[in-house]
Amino acid sequence: MTSQNNVLKGVFLVALGATTYGMLATFVKMAYSEGYTTAEVTTSQFIYGILGILLINLFQRIKNKNKAVKASPKNIFNLMLAGTSLGMTSLFYYLAVKYIPVSIGIVLLMQTVWMGVLLEMILEKKLPSKQKVIAVFIVLFGTVLATNIINNDIQLDWRGLVWGILAAASFTTTMFTANSVATEISSAQRSLYMLLGGAIIVFSFAFATQVTAFNLEIFLKWGIVLSLFGTIIPPLLMTAGFPLTGIGLGSIVSALELPVSVMMAFVLLNEKVIFSQWVGIVLIILAIIIMNVNFKSKK
Questions:
Q1: Residue 75 has what pLDDT?
Q2: pLDDT at res. 169
Q3: Domain segments of the chain as ranges
Q4: Averages of pLDDT over each 10 residues, the chain, 299 residues
Q5: Which of 1, 28, 205, 242 could pair with 250 in a Cys bridge, judged by C-beta atoms 3.0 to 4.6 Å apart?
Q6: 140 contacts 108 by C-beta, under 8 angstroms
Q7: What single-letter DSSP state applies at residue 72?
């Protein structure tokens, strides 16, 4: 019974984390509508995110009386290097939703499903299972429907599509490195150093692209919201929930991010989402279930 309760607790934590992250792009789009730049949005999010994770690390250190395993210089370097892909994901994703609807941006980000299979095939040097191949084809077909590219009435900005695919590629890298680099230290420490690595990318981008004076009002208006929904709450909930659910069930539950993101864009941004797009979204979620249910049963 306790084991079942733990799984339910894990499902709740992962679902809450995915739901929170699913809301993020809509808030970014709302910040854009108020005239804030990508540099201002990402910089404020990362600064508040680092401060928030620093406080969590401090609290954990006091609670554990400094008994936790501390990161070595090698750990710190590897995590910061891995974190650069985290910074790139935020930048590319936010640049994508600048040019295309949020409902399309999140579908492009979900291309991590087939990109992950491809990366796994390259790293492990073996062909993927039939289930994974079927899932990839379902994702690709679902993407065609979900992005509504068959409908000639919709003209999607090619810049948004390119940034969206780049976001998916960097997110795939982040997922692989986050699960394999310096796993012996606490998730709060790992999050901090990955955020610092991401901040280098974000701050460099801001320095290179911000041609007008930096609008500090972003810190009062959107910075806290973006950091909570993007860099603090989802990672903490996910890292607490995934060990309880397992990778398979956790991946299925985290797919909630997709419908939540589309729903938020539909309600708050009045984005048009037609029936065939919802069918595509359901197909992408179905592909994630197919991949992970089979993976779990093998375990």
A1: 87
A2: 92
A3: 2-298
A4: 77 89 92 94 94 90 78 88 90 94 90 85 83 87 82 75 93 77 79 91 93 90 92 82 76 85 91 88 88 56
A5: 242
A6: no
A7: P
CA-to-CA distance for 55 and 282, rounded, in angstroms?
Answer: 39
221 exposure class (CB count in 10 Å sphere: 0-12, 13-18, 19+)? middle
The Cβ of residue 278 has, within 10 Å, a number of other Cβ atoms equal to 16
Instruction: Report yes or no: 249 and 296 within 8 Å, Cβ to Cβ.
Output: yes
CB atoms within 10 A of CB 127: 9
At which residue do the structure tokens 């310096």 appear?
182
AA identity, residue 47: I
Q: Cβ(230)–Cβ(60) under 8 Å?
A: no
Give the per-residue pLDDT at 179. Answer: 66
Residue whose structure tokens are 């406080």: 55
Distances, alpha carbon 240 to alpha carbons 6, 43, 70, 263, in Å? 11, 26, 19, 26
Reported as type and span, the H/E element at residue 31 is helix 2-33
State both tokens at 173: 């890298």
**DSSP single-letter state for residue 69:** P
Separation CA 47–CA 113 (nearest Å)? 30
Residue 120 has which token pair?
Answer: 């796994």
**Helix H or strand E encompassing 164:** helix 158-178
Reduced to 3 DSSP states, what percent helix, strand and coil does the chain have, rounded to the nearest 5?
80, 0, 20
Integer Cα distance of 167 and 165 in angstroms: 5
Q: What is the pLDDT of residue 126?
A: 82
């909630």: which residue's tokens? Answer: 256
- Report the Cα 87 to chain-centroid distance in Å: 11
Q: Which of 165, 185, 48 is nearest to 108 (CA)?
A: 165
Among 18, 29, 13, which Cα is nearest to 226's? Answer: 29
